[in-house]
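Final report, closing paragraph on structural work. Over the funding period we assembled a curated collection of sequence-structure pairs, and we close with a single example.
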Amino acid sequence: MTALGKHMLLELKDCDAGLLNDMEYLREALKTVAASIGATVIKDSFYQFSPQGISGVVIIAESHISIHTWPEFNFAAVDVFTCGEVIEPAKAVKPLAERLKAKSTSYIELKRGVLTESPAAAGR
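Its predicted structure, as stored:
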């Protein structure tokens, strides 16, 4: 079986609430972590909710990294989705947790686009 990509679902708990509500800090943190795992940053888009919370995505050549924050719960949900075999999304877990000062983390990695036949065989 072949998988087209890997999707890391990361929960960051007991984070610094101030950082979770700082849009520029989050933008730079995600872009820096993306670069640190070897991803190529293309573009980003972030939105600040009122009274608090941020959603954002960093588009990378290999797919994306997204974040949704709940400062009132000191919680962030992060997705790291990479296509191909070069970038390992698991390498983003520790630096993301450190940047948001998370005291507790949990994550799962899913294979996406699991194919039972090769692209060449599918075209026959």
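The radius of gyration is 16 Å. The longest helix spans residues 23-36. We thank the funder for supporting this effort.
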